[in-house]
Write a structure and sequence with these properties.
This protein has one domain: Metal-dependent hydrolases (TIM Barrel, Alpha-Beta Barrel), CATH 3.20.20. It is 42% helix and 17% strand. It is built from nine helices and eight strands. The protein is globular, with a radius of gyration of 17 Å. It starts with a strand and ends with a helix. The chain binds nickel (II) ion.
């Protein structure tokens, strides 16, 4: 099956014991592509290095809202230099996360979101956007900058999805769509134009049912795809083919 994992973090510690073997196995069997997302300057550099060790793995470089408090101004130049690498295909993971009370202050998150949207537009690269409980502000920034890209692990309403689609962006869905309490996400999965959908793991997090809570990897996308394919009345293989094409189109692979 042609699985394209459009959003993952295989640099996470949970892959320390078997990272290279696992990726080699996945990419030699059912997985036709992976986008590894940096979350700060250091992991962005490591993501580009990882991409050079695996032909069908590419990197997104960026400062995640959860890491924005530790970022320093020079990091923007580091990202720009990394983005010039042939295996760097996007600016990500960037965005806003208002979930945690003790999170990085919102104005600091917004500063980094804004400067990375500007960087992506200047370099003509797509963005990978993280939006957790920050739908209004995320949409406002995207409407202002109108970047190419994807809102990953989309958790907004059908109405918000329509606004994202109007901007020409893609919507990324992962294991959450298989969860019992995922009514809103299921509604979005049912209405999206199929040429705007990307499938993702967000590995090591958000493994789909029946592996919920376990370490997630790209092979688990088969379960997510089966649920969405059934909703859409097409075969899992057809959905995997369409979404892999979508990822190649967005990331210009
Ligand atoms: Ni992520």
């Amino acid at each position: 099956m042609p699985i394209f994992d459009s959003h993952a973090h295989y640099l996470d510690d949970r892959f320390n014991d078997d990272r290279e073997e696992l990726l080699a196995t996945l990419l030699n069997t059912t997985v036709c592509g992976i986008i590894e997302n940096g979350t700060d300057a250091a992991t962005s550099r490591l993501a580009v290095e990882l991409a050079h060790r695996h032909e069908k793995l590419w990197a997104a470089v960026g400062i995640h809202p959860g890491e924005a408090a530790e970022a320093v101004p020079q990091d923007l130049a580091v990202l720009e230099a990394l983005a010039a690498d042939e295996k760097a295909v996007a600016i990500g993971e960037i965005g806003l996360d208002y979930h945690y009370d003790d999170a990085c202050p919102r104005d600091v998150q917004q500063h980094w979101f804004r400067s990375q949207l500007e960087l992506a537009n200047r370099l003509a690269l797509p963005v990978v956007v993280h939006d957790r409980e920050a739908h209004e502000d995320t949409l406002r920034f995207l409407q202002e900058y109108r970047p190419a890209g994807v809102v990953h692990c989309f958790s907004g309403s059908v109405e918000m999805a329509k606004e994202i689609l109007k901007l020409g962006m893609y919507i990324g869905l992962g294991g959450v769509v298989t969860f019992k309490n995922a009514r809103k996400t299921v509604e979005v999965a049912a209405m999206l134009p199929l040429d705007r959908l990307l499938l993702e793991t967000d590995a090591p997090y958000l493994a789909p049912v029946p592996h919920r809570g376990e370490r997630c990897d790209a092979s688990h996308i088969a379960y997510t795809a089966a649920v969405i394919a059934e909703l859409r009345g097409i075969s899992t293989e057809e959905l995997l083919n369409i979404t892999a094409d979508n990822a190649r189109r967005l990331y210009r692979l």
